[in-house]
């Protein structure tokens, strides 16, 4: 686990170092999530709809490649019968993007998730943060499109959790989910 944390921190530091030498755009983003908790014992969790919002940097490495570190608040979790499992994360993905000349981009990269809050709600709210690990590591894969003259764009991605988020040793659980959202790059230029 420490290896993954060190890797993400190293990538963020490289992003900051690269930013001083390359063209950088700062942006804001927000949208919808559809997350669930995947378990190794086939528990019947349904998807939960939530929101995400945050900031990102878009760092041009050359004409075709960019690095995009992000800081995103994400409402995740799952539904189990009448119970909502609400997991709030501060996610820090670092994406490598391949940029096509027409505004389309494909992207992938690691993500560090820091658990902020965990509750089970079924008429009343119960704090279940002690039932979950505080760090979630995963991978983001997706695509986006930016309308170059305006700086506005749309982003879609799949989040695949790698680490077991459950503190229970009997069941392995990982986050899985889709995100779709809108973004705006301040002072965008190609």
CATH topology: Porin
Low-confidence stretches: none
Instruction: State the helical fraction.
Output: under 10%
Structural class: mainly beta
Give the class-level CATH name: Mainly Beta
N→C terminal distance: 38 Å
How large is the radius of gyration? 17 Å
Largest sheet: 8 strands, antiparallel, barrel
Estimated share of beta-strand residues: over 45%
Mean of residue pLDDT values: 88
Order of helices and strands: HEEEEEEEEE
Domain unit count? 1
**Overall shape:** elongated
List the strand order in the largest sheet.
Answer: 1-2-3-4-5-7-8-9
> Given the structure, what is the number of helices?
1
Second rung of CATH, namely the architecture? Beta Barrel
| Record field, number of beta strands | 9
Describe the structure.
- With 190 residues, this protein is mainly beta.
- It has one domain: Beta Barrel (Porin).
- Helices cover 9% and strands 63% of the residues.
- It has 1 helix and 9 strands.
Defining traits:
mainly beta, Porin, 8-stranded antiparallel barrel
Topology:
Blueprint (H helix, E strand, L loop, with lengths): L1 H18 L4 E16 L8 E13 L4 E16 L2 E17 L4 E18 L3 E3 L7 E13 L4 E10 L11 E14 L4
Antiparallel strand pairs: 1-2, 1-9, 2-3, 3-4, 4-5, 5-6, 5-7, 7-8, 8-9
Put the structure in a nutshell.
This protein is mainly β and 190 residues long. The protein is 9% helix and 63% strand.
């Amino acid at each position: 686990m420490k290896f993954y944390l060190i890797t993400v921190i190293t990538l963020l530091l490289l992003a900051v170092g690269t930013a001083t030498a390359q063209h950088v755009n700062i942006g804001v983003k927000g949208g919808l999530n559809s997350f669930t908790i995947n378990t190794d014992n086939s528990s019947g969790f349904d998807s939960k709809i939530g929101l995400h919002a945050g900031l990102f940097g878009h760092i041009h490495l050359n004409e075709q490649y960019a690095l995009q570190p992000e800081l995103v608040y994400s409402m995740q979790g799952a539904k189990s019968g009448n119970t909502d499992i609400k997991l709030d994360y501060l996610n820090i993905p670092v994406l490598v993007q391949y940029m096509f000349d027409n505004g389309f981009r494909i992207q992938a990269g690691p993500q560090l998730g820091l658990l902020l809050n965990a509750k089970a709600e079924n008429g009343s709210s119960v704090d279940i943060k002690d039932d979950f690990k505080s760090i979630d590591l995963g991978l983001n894969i997706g695509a986006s499109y930016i309308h170059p003259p305006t700086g506005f764009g749309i982003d879609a991605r799949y989040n695949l959790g790698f680490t077991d988020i459950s503190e229970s040793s009997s069941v392995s659980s990982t986050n899985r989910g889709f995100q779709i959202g809108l973004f705006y790059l301040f002072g965008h230029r190609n």
